[in-house]
Backbone:
């Protein structure tokens, strides 16, 4: 019996020491952020700026090299379904992005539709193919010749695009491009009738603020107050989209998924900074700000959630 | 290079010195041995189904514009060595759309493929017929397994109640595994079969019981050999256009059963369903007590004019049996009824890769009946497989083996049976004699003896198999050849030991074996095409050859050495009977369907059948049908002006179907062996020949309207049909001098007319909450149009067949009232001669419901699901034979018990009641008050039943996925929870004469165990 007690005590000590050691380690472990790649330029900027004011902060983005590591924050850029969130997971939104239709700058379509621009119905026909199992109606096809390029169906941009038009991602036509949204531009640059959507941060040179070479925005039917979108620079487009809702342009939020349980203080501090000082870097990287009310809501939610950590 | 990186990526997992040593060696080996491919990049990934997110096995991944390809493994993974990126992959798999993928980065990737929706998906196949979706002109109801699975029952046929308009399903008893009365759009025949044709995975199966030992009028159901858990869907084919292609067996409708199969390119799925529950009678019989019974006997004595001083129940001191109030009450009813346990377990595995799909299912069910001594067990195994050998040729098989074990005892019309011994036996007399032995009264056996000594079992072994090969000659031209068997062995064993009345003096045993075997070979050529997206044409041609063999042998034994020796070889007296017969059916059939612009469609089918059962001059018969449909909703004027209409279709059809369900060799003159004289063998003439015997033919036309409104939120269908059957196959009585009592002839005509209406609504459909309702109602009016003679079915002439009346009509003395002054029953004097004679009997009502229908509600809120089915039957009459025998007013003396309702009898002048005075003598007008075929026992059997309520909860996927589960659902099912009816018996459903050949009797309720109220708890796990 005594021997048994001895082993039990030894085992308890082992467990206790392991727990302490784990806690100590966790204090030193970096905050790892992973998720939708096209947001990385903005997140990298946030991290860099945050670390300037918090030199001890240890935050890093997940890369191929550390792909196996468990992330503390996961970036999401579409409205998640219930099944995508694990129990006790929450989202804090920190910005928005817009998806503009874009093509090769030599696409003859640019001339054909230059005058009026494509409306939402025409864009729908171009980008989506709906097969109704119960209908005998022939599948509606667009009158324009085009090769559609999109990310795989699970990607955030695909989900946001399909959701905006009321479709499933599986209904997006054409070829798939793996890796990152930036490669969609690579694809259409090689294909004169290639069409795709992309976010402003990739479409525009964030230094010169003008559209990248080799591509052209697809003319879309815009109301007077939004006409600047087709001609203006990145800042003009950001301003218009923040001020006006354009039915042909999906605008979706980006956010961080975090676990509501045992959230580290480093994580909550970083999120608070992103929602305050970090917001001024959104435009620089081609992202829209949250509107004031949404931003206040997110800040309040964050405060409520992490009150105990203050 | 990549391999090296991978290796060094795992560097830290190995002890440092080992890694350095082996790392060098392996690096060297890789660099030297594989120097040729050292510059290659390895692309890894996984291919999944877009919808199910399951692995696609055997998908091909090719490099666009370069050499190189690979296929995915059993987990959908692939690896491909390439020289450089970016590149384009082309991913393809059978049944999926090809997908081009541009790869710019070398990282593990997941590619999703979408199922290919091509022309095939817009073509639907029902039985043999291919039509454009929505272009069907036939009246067909499809029932999905989800609609059936929560309803308790050993057989799927009882689960069909209330699911399809026009389908009348009535449970003959509450005993699990017993037969079910099923009629589709009425009854078309008298002496030929009236059951629909059941076809399981293309195999026409025998739906008739093989039971030969009588259990009092109840029969076992061969349909309960099929495990309901294996069923994927049921299609009910109702009009002639749908059934004509089944020709000789289509007159009573066709029920197509499709069992579950694996799906190509799907992950292997294991599903376990376990249920445990209880069943109990919701209502039993309200019996008169011993003192009440004695009181009635005294009253009858006095009312019959006998002296009160000699009444049977007078003080013992006066030489009597004691006053009524001194009598005891002996309850036998509670002895036989119990809370019955039921349990069912089903395990299935299904899945498939690009070429092969499979379904394996095993099941066990054990159901105790609420009547002690009866239970039903079934073991099932199913194996379905489909394999594509290449693009042109595929093979497949469907197999089921079921083994059922029944413990049986006699109920219904069997005085020596357990139910009559319990319910009909008197409450006035004790169960045991004073010496402790079993007490027996009159014709009844002792109830406790029957419970303790029951030894009657039936063992059914059934195998239904189908093997097919299919050749796709051209894209839409296929040839399918199949061979099918339905092999059914049924073995019954019964031993009455010396403790039972029927086992006197020293044991009586019966051992019976029935073997029913059917073989079917079928060839089917199918073609369809579309021209300019406007014209759709399909054609099919087929041939079927069927052969059925039936043999039966019964061995009887009596006088056993003791009850320990029960095998018949131990008996001193033995006898045996054997019989065998066979039949054949040769058929050619074909059909075509054409639709234009998805608006107008016409179709035509024809079948030629030759049956061995008919006379040589009439062996061949031809059954044609035509139909047309007009999708009015597709017309521009509707699309423009009534946008809320999604579908509006008018359809009509007419066709002829046949009935050959009569005895084998029915047209031939037959001689029987066994007519021996002392020890000399002899034969005797057993059947007169009728070379002119021909097919019973049913003409049916149908007109219907289908509509779907408000984005399919609301849909309905209404059909009106008219069936007319000629050349009824009838056993006609003939003069006794011929040496025969009857001969089968084509005489008589019958009609069935009715309408069916179904409306379905999706009331609420949100992400978290869904609620849908379906209501259906149908009516059938049956009439015997021509019948040269009138005759009765069943004993006591209760059920009458006569021209101008429907089948199942009750022929009774119509009781008008009970005379308040005399207490005698007043019957309608039809002949107005002042006397009540047989000539005053008349058709008073029939067992057909005026309406039947069902209301189904299904709802889902997040993980919770709830469904409820209410079934109703309105206007059906039930002859309550329990009342006939147990409101006997003293006629049946002490031994037959009384129902409590007897106490409402007339007692003194001025009493107003429907139950006449207790008396056993004839009334002045020649009638009798009691034990008389009076209409007072004919009751309104209308009922509304909460047939099923099912409540389930599925644990959220997020929680169970960690356990590797796809689905975890807990549920509770309640069956027959509530019945609203004016009927005074235990159950308004039920039929004491279920064994009557071809079900010519309905609505007789006599000592039938009621359908139980049942609660089942279960869990369903899928991973």
Residues:
């Amino acid at each position: 019996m005594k021997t048994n007690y001895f082993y039990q005590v030894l085992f308890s000590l082992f467990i206790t020491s392991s727990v302490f050691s784990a806690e100590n380690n966790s204090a030193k472990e970096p905050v790892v952020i992973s998720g939708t790649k096209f947001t990385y330029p903005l997140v990298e900027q946030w991290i860099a700026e945050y670390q300037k004011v918090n030199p001890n902060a240890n935050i890093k983005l997940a890369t191929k090299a550390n792909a196996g590591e468990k992330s503390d924050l996961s970036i999401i850029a579409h409205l998640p379904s219930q099944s995508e969130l694990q129990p006790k997971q929450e989202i804090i939104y920190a910005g928005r992005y817009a998806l503009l239709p874009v093509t090769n700058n030599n696409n003859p379509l640019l001339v054909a539709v230059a005058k009026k621009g494509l409306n939402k119905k025409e864009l729908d026909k171009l980008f989506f193919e709906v097969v109704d199992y119960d209908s005998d109606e022939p599948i509606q096809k667009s009158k324009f010749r085009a090769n559609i390029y999109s990310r795989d169906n699970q990607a955030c941009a695909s989900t946001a695009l399909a959701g905006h038009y009321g479709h499933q991602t599986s209904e997006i036509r054409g070829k798939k491009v793996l890796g990152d949204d930036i490669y969609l531009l690579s694809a259409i640059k090689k294909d004169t009738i290639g069409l795709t959507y992309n976010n402003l941060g990739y479409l525009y040179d964030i230094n010169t603020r003008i559209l990248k070479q080799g591509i052209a925005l697809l003319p879309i039917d815009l109301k007077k107050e939004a006409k600047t979108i087709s001609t203006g620079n990145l800042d003009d487009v950001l301003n218009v989209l923040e001020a006006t809702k354009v039915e042909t342009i999906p605008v979706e939020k980006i956010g961080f998924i975090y676990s509501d349980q045992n959230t580290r203080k480093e994580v909550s501090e970083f999120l608070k900074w992103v929602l305050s000082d970090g917001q001024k870097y959104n435009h620089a990287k081609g992202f829209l700000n949250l509107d004031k009310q949404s931003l206040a809501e997110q800040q309040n939610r964050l405060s409520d959630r992490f009150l105990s950590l203050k | 290079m990549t391999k090296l990186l991978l290796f060094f990526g795992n560097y830290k997992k190995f002890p440092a010195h080992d890694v350095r040593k082996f790392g060098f060696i392996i690096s060297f080996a890789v660099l030297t041995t594989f120097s040729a491919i050292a510059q290659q990049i390895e692309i890894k990934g996984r291919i999944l189904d877009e919808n199910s997110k399951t692995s696609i096995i055997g998908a091909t991944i090719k490099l666009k514009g370069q050499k190189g390809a690979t296929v995915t493994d059993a987990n959908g993974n692939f690896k491909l060595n390439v020289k450089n990126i970016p590149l384009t992959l082309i991913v393809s798999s059978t049944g999926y759309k090809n997908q081009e993928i541009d790869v710019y980065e070398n990282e593990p990737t997941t590619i999703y493929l979408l199922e290919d929706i091509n022309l095939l998906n817009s073509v639907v196949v029902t039985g043999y017929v291919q039509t454009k979706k929505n272009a069907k002109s036939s009246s067909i109801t499809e029932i999905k397994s989800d609609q059936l699975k929560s309803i308790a029952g050993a057989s799927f046929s009882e689960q069909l109640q209330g699911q399809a308009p026009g389908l009348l399903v009535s449970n003959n008893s509450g005993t699990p595994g017993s037969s079910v009365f099923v009629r589709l759009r009425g009854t078309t025949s008298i002496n030929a079969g009236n059951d629909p044709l059941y076809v399981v995975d293309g195999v026409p199966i025998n739906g008739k019981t093989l039971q030969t030992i009588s259990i009092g009028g109840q029969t076992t159901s061969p349909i309960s050999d099929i495990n309901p858990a294996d069923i994927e869907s049921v299609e009910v084919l109702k009009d002639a256009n749908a059934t004509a292609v089944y020709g000789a067996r289509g007159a009573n409708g066709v029920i197509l059963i499709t069992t579950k199969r694996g799906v190509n390119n799907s992950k292997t799925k294991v599903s376990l369903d376990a249920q445990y529950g209880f069943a109990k009678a919701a209502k039993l019989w309200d019996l008169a007590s011993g003192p009440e019974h004695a009181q009635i006997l005294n009253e009858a004595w006095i009312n019959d004019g006998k002296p009160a001083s000699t009444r049977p129940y007078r003080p013992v001191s006066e030489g009597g049996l004691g006053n009524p109030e001194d009598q005891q009450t002996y309850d036998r009813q509670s002895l036989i009824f119990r809370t019955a346990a039921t349990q069912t377990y089903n395990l299935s595995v299904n899945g498939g890769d690009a070429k092969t799909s499979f379904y394996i299912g095993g099941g066990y069910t054990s159901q105790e009946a609420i009547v002690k001594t009866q239970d039903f067990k079934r073991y099932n195994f199913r194996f379905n497989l489909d394999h594509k050998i290449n693009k042109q040729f595929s093979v497949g098989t469907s197999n089921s083996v079921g083994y059922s074990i029944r413990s049986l005892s006699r109920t219904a019309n069997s005085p020596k049976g357990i139910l009559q011994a319990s319910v009909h036996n008197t409450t006035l007399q004790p169960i045991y004699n004073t010496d402790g032995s079993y007490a027996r009264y009159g014709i009844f056996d002792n109830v406790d003896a029957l419970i303790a000594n029951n030894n009657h079992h039936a063992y059914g072994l059934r195998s239904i198999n189908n093997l097919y090969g299919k050749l796709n000659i051209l894209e839409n031209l296929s040839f399918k050849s199949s061979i099918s068997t339905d092999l059914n062995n049924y073995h019954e064993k019964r031993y009455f030991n010396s403790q039972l009345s029927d086992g006197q003096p020293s044991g009586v045993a019966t051992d019976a074996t029935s073997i029913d075997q059917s073989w079917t070979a079928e060839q089917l050529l199918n073609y369809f095409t579309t021209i300019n997206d406007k014209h759709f044409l399909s054609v099919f041609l087929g041939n079927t050859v069927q052969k059925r063999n039936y043999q039966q042998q019964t061995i009887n034994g009596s006088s056993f050495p003791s009850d320990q020796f029960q095998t018949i070889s131990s008996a001193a007296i033995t006898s045996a009977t054997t019989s065998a017969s066979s039949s054949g059916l040769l058929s050619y059939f074909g059909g075509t369907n054409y639709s234009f612009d998805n608006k107008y469609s016409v179709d035509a089918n024809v079948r030629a059948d030759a049956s061995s059962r008919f006379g040589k001059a009439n062996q061949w018969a031809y059954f044609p049908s035509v139909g047309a449909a007009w999708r009015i909703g597709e017309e521009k004027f509707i699309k423009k002006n009534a946008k809320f209409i999604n579908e509006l279709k008018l359809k009509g059809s007419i066709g002829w179907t046949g009935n050959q369900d009569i005895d084998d060799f029915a047209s031939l003159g037959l001689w029987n062996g066994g007519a021996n004289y002392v020890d000399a063998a002899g034969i005797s003439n057993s059947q007169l020949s009728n070379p002119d015997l021909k097919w019973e033919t049913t003409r049916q036309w149908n007109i219907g309207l289908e509509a779907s409104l408000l984005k399919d939120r609301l849909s309905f269908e209404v059909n009106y049909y008219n069936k007319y059957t000629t050349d009824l196959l009838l056993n006609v009585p003939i003069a006794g001098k011929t040496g025969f009592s009857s001969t089968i002839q084509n005489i008589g005509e019958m009609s069935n007319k009715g309408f069916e209406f179904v409306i379905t609504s999706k009331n609420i459909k949100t992400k978290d909450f869904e609620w849908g309702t379906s209501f259906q109602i149908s009516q059938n009016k049956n009439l015997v149009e021509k019948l040269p003679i009138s005759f009765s079915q069943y004993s006591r002439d209760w059920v009458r067949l006569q021209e101008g009346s429907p089948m199942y009509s009750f022929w009774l003395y119509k009781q008008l009232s009970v005379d308040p002054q005399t207490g005698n029953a007043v019957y309608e004097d039809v002949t107005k001669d002042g006397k009540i004679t047989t000539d005053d009997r008349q058709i008073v009502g029939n067992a057909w419901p005026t309406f039947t229908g069902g209301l189904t509600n299904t709802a889902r809120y997040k993980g919770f699901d709830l469904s409820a089915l209410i079934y109703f039957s309105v206007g059906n009459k039930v002859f309550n034979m329990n009342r006939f025998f147990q409101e006997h007013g003293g006629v049946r003396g002490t031994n037959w018990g009384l129902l409590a309702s007897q106490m409402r009898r007339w007692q003194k002048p001025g009493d107003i009641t429907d139950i006449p005075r207790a008396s056993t003598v004839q009334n002045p007008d020649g009638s009798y008050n009691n034990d008389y075929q009076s209409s007072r026992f004919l009751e309104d059997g209308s009922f509304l039943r909460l047939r099923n309520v099912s409540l389930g909860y599925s644990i959220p996927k997020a929680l169970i996925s960690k356990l590797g589960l796809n689905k975890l659902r807990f549920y509770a099912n309640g069956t027959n929870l509530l019945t609203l009816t004016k009927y005074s018996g235990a159950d308004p459903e039920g039929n004491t004469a279920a064994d009557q050949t071809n079900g010519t009797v309905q609505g007789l309720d006599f000592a039938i165990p009621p359908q139980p109220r049942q609660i089942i708890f279960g869990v369903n796990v899928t991973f």
Strands of chain A lie at 31-35, 59-61, 73-76, 89-104, 147-151, 175-178, 194-199, 215-217, 251-259.
